[in-house]
Amino acid sequence: MAESDSSTRTLPRQRPDPSPAHAAVPGPVVPVLHGRFGLRVVDPEGTDPQLIARWMALPHLVATWEQPWSAAQWAEDARLRLRGDYSVPVIFTVDGADAGYVELYRVTRDEVGGTYDAHPHDMGFHIATGETGLIGRGVITAFITELADGVLTAEPQCRRMVGDPAVDNARIHRALTKAGFVHRDTVDVRPGRRISLFIRSRPDD
């Protein structure tokens, strides 16, 4: 990732120039989780970028994320996210151990924001499970469930939590469905990027 003026840059998947009503909404919340799961904001000046780079070089994440960047690139990406109000980079933990990477984002500032009737406070997430021993054991489904519960509790104005995996990522589709998300649509958000839009609404929405 080349160095440039961060004030003029957008991040991958970010929509530039949100409407005034959407721009007035603060950045994403990071909920406090309980039990075996935890969240902590990425520290771009520590060892987190090296950890994320190692995870993103794994074959299953190269295939789904297509971002096998260097640690320096991940550090710069985290700095940009933390300076802005679009997305927050987070490490999720399982039983106290680092397990994967999550980006919590405001839907109206993301490329999926134009794919449904998004509310200004709606939030979404991108997830990368780095510790492969957790895959296929129900752990990630349980984490996604608690993450969505946590966001909807922490932000009462958030009406929907959104997942937007690639259309061919069947494993995460199953996890989202088990976590209470409903498949809403299949959308081409940009050339070469077709997603399955999953939404979990508040019970009273």
TrEMBL record:
<dbReference type="InterPro" id="IPR019432">
    <property type="entry name" value="Acyltransferase_MbtK/IucB-like"/>
</dbReference>
<dbReference type="GO" id="GO:0019290">
    <property type="term" value="P:siderophore biosynthetic process"/>
</dbReference>
<dbReference type="Pfam" id="PF13523">
    <property type="entry name" value="Acetyltransf_8"/>
</dbReference>
<feature type="region of interest" description="Disordered">
    <location>
        <begin position="1"/>
        <end position="27"/>
    </location>
</feature>
<protein>
    <recommendedName>
        <fullName>Lysine N-acyltransferase MbtK</fullName>
    </recommendedName>
</protein>
<feature type="domain" description="Acyltransferase MbtK/IucB-like conserved">
    <location>
        <begin position="40"/>
        <end position="88"/>
    </location>
</feature>
<keyword id="KW-0614">Plasmid</keyword>
<dbReference type="GO" id="GO:0016410">
    <property type="term" value="F:N-acyltransferase activity"/>
</dbReference>
<feature type="compositionally biased region" description="Polar residues">
    <location>
        <begin position="1"/>
        <end position="11"/>
    </location>
</feature>
<dbReference type="InterPro" id="IPR016181">
    <property type="entry name" value="Acyl_CoA_acyltransferase"/>
</dbReference>
<comment type="function">
    <text>Acyltransferase required for the direct transfer of medium- to long-chain fatty acyl moieties from a carrier protein (MbtL) on to the epsilon-amino group of lysine residue in the mycobactin core.</text>
</comment>
<comment type="pathway">
    <text>Siderophore biosynthesis; mycobactin biosynthesis.</text>
</comment>
